[in-house]
Amino acid sequence: MRLLFTCRQLPGHLHPRLPLAAAAAEAGHRVAFATGDPALAEVRARGYTAFPAAPEPGAREDFLRAFPQLLEVDPEEHRALFFSELFVRRELPARLAALTAIVAAWRPDAIVNEVSEYAGPIAATAEQLPYVTAGYGPLVQPRVAARAAEATIPFWDAAGAEPIEPRAYLDPCPRSLQIDAIQLLPALPVRLTPLPRPGPPPVPLGPHARTVYVTFGTVWNRDAAPFRAAFDALAEEPVNVVATLGGELDLGPVPGNVSVHRFIPQAELLPHCDAVIAHGGAGTTLGALAHGLPLILLPQGADQHYNAERAAAAGAALVGALDVARLLADDGLRAAARRIAAELAALPDPAETMQRVVDICA
User: Quick one: which of 28, 165, 286, 308 could link to 280 by a disulfide (CB 3.0–4.6 Å)?
Assistant: First the structure.
């Protein structure tokens, strides 16, 4: 089978697709990606066929100018604006034009789109191809999803296609963090978060017995203040602090127990950590919980408030306050994180789930 994976162009949208693509390729299926940079460059570096399907340059900047109140509205409205105004109205037109041409030329048998990439379902349906949608965290809130779906209607009409539901929704979220609305979808569970694996630390950790990982992801990481606040809170604790910036950021002097790096693969670092302080991105949150690590989450935007809310409701995270003493000492937090780790470990692996996808789409 020829499978075309479509996703937005940022790492947090691409990386959950890679285990699925690898499983499909290992099973003998032909795999290609349609996305934009920097994801496009990474996909090509991994050896996959890759087609450019990016929004118009400046789409995000135009969105931010149009909604200066973005950081002042409540978190659900904030996310609804991202989905309906950025992902659909500003990104979808150019992406759909590119995907229409890609489908005509490459002739996939099915499309796997990620949940915030809305051109894939339209391009698939217009060509009478099956598609499945893959999530990367808890199911998008129903009100957010409804706003985005309404915004897509003119594009479905222009393509001459009636909106149809995916054949399946690939759900990487453990039950403890998921919302009840998942029961309304043809959901296939899938484990996309790497399980703990033995190996030496990827960087020197320091002299202390325990280590705390500090990260604010690769997009919402441009302000030094959250890093400095975390470092100050941990400065007197007998722990190693390993921080990743995800880009260029000048933090100035840091406490003696802190080491700062631009990037470390979290799958290699998390097995050696005892707790995490982060922004609440889905990849970081699920990655920490897969290793049974309690979190302090300081959400900045996008889906982070929602992920933080779900992790806190499950008892595995503190939100908003840098209560590092509790993070390091609260047995209830750690027990909840370990319970979620067991849920994640029990999910079907990508190979099993992709075989079901192929069966559904054949």
Answer: 308
pTM exceeds 0.85: yes
DSSP string computed for 263-289 = ---HHHHGGG-SEEEE---HHHHHHHH
State the CATH number of the domain containing residue 109.
3.40.50.2000
Query: Would you call 126 exposed, middle or buried from its count of C-beta atoms within 10 A (0-12, 13-18, 19+)?
Result: middle
Tell me the sheet residues that pair with 211. 240
347-359 pLDDT tens trace? 999 999 999 999 9
- Pull the structure tokens for residue 328: 């390091």
- Expressed as residue numbers, the domain containing 26 is 2-191+347-361
Place of tokens 């806190």: 312
Burial 194-208 (b: 16+ CB within 10 A, else e): beeeeeebbeebbee
Q: Please check whether residue 46 lies inside any domain of the structure.
A: yes
**Dihedrals φ, ψ of 314, to 5°?**
-80, -5
**Residue 220 scores a pLDDT above 70:** no
Alpha carbon distance 25, 20 (integer Å)? 9
> What distance, in Å, lies between the first and last C-alpha atoms of the chain?
8
Which residues have a Cβ under 8 Å from the Cβ of 168 and sit 6 or more positions away? 132, 133, 186, 187, 188, 356, 357, 360
- What are the tens digits of pLDDT across the range 149-196? 999 999 999 999 999 999 999 999 999 999 999 999 999 999 999 888
